[in-house]
Amino acid sequence: MSLPDLPFNPAHCLINGTWRAPLDGQTLALIDPSNGSELTQIARGQSRDIDASVEAAQSALNGEWGSKTALERGRILTRIGQLVLEHVDLLAELEAHDVGKPLTQARADAIALARYMEFYGGSADKIHGETIPYLGGYTVYTLREPHGVTGHIVPWNYPMQIIGRSVGAALAMGNAAVLKPAEEACLTALMFAEIARTAGLPDGALNVVPGLGAEAGAALSSHKDVQHISFTGSVATGALVQQAAGANVVPVTLELGGKSPQLVFEDANLDDALPFLVNAGIQNAGQTCSASSRILVQENRYAEVVAAMSERYSALTVGPAMDDLNLGPLISERQKEIVTGFLAQGKDLHIAATGQIAEGAPSKGAYVAPHLLLCSDPHHPLAQQEIFGPVQIVIPFKDEAEAVAIANGTDFGLVASVWTENGARQMRLAKALKSGQVFINNYGAGGGVELPFGGVGKSGHGREKGFEALYGFSTLKTVAAKHG
Ligand code: NAD
Question: Could you give the C-alpha distances from 131 to 84, 330, 467, 480, in angstroms and in order?
Answer without folding.
Answer: 38, 51, 20, 10
